[in-house]
Amino acid sequence: MKVFKFGGASVNSAPAVRNMADIVRRHLGNSTLIVVVSAMGKTTNMLEQLVPGVHPAAEHPALMQKVKDYHYTIIHDLFPVAGHPVYAAVSDLFAQLEQQSAQAPTDYNFDYSQTVCFGELISTTIVSHYLNSIGLDNRSPTTNTARASSISPPHSATPTAAPSCPAAPSSSPRASLPAAPTATPPPSAARAATTAPPSSPTASEPKA
Questions:
Q1: Which of 9, 115, 144, 145 lies closest to 53, judged by CA?
Q2: H or E segment at 22?
Q3: Nearest to 157 by CA among 181, 144, 140
């Protein structure tokens, strides 16, 4: 298995996506490839402007249109047929992004992670569909667990998790409490712990 990671500059235009696909094809060989792509070009910079609270809501439509125009320019070049499924898939992501950016501000770091992740969601969707269209079959993003496409020889479809934004916390981001102080054992207890016989293993909690 090989893992290929392509940065934003490697997929910042339709020609760049085609070049990326050529690289993938040349290195496929007899091993499965995991292809990971960043947000296209400067998409992350654009998405940072859509984080709730950064700009007034009245400015969001114009900012959102810049994101759409940039990606649709790439899509129209790669997929000249208007009915290709990539259009519906990306349109759905744009709708989710608009809904996210319209949320009331909460914790900035949380809002940021929930917004800018759409860059990878959109780029992975476009790249996955393009690879399928040129015969490099991979699982199109349909579930929410990772940011990768898998390609197996001889170009057979391989189930792959799709990109996703970080999961929302179980409680409000503002409701975090400081960690409870760790109790310090008395010196006698510390000495007892260091002299415990090897045959008495100390239980430890499994890592999360």
A1: 115
A2: helix 14-28
A3: 140
**SS3 for 6?**
strand
Report CA-CA distances (Å) from 189 to 193, 195, 198, 205: 6, 10, 17, 20
Tokens standing for 169?
A: 């916390």
Task: Write out pLDDT tens, residues 40-95.
Answer: 999 999 999 999 999 999 999 999 999 999 999 999 999 999 899 999 999 999 99
Q: How far apart are CA 31 and CA 33, in angstroms?
A: 6
Report the DSSP pairing between strands 2-6 and 33-37.
parallel
Residues 6+ apart with CB under 8 A from 15: none
If one counts every other C-beta atom within 10 angstroms of the C-beta of residue 77, the result is: 13
Residues 6+ apart with CB under 8 A from 165: 113, 114, 117, 118, 121
Above 60 in pLDDT, residue 139? yes
Tell me the two tokens of residue 84.
Answer: 């290709």
Cα 136 off chain centre by = 21
Q: Which residues contact 41 (CB under 8 A, 6 or more apart)?
A: 8, 9, 11, 12, 13, 70
The answer to whether the pTM exceeds 0.85 is no
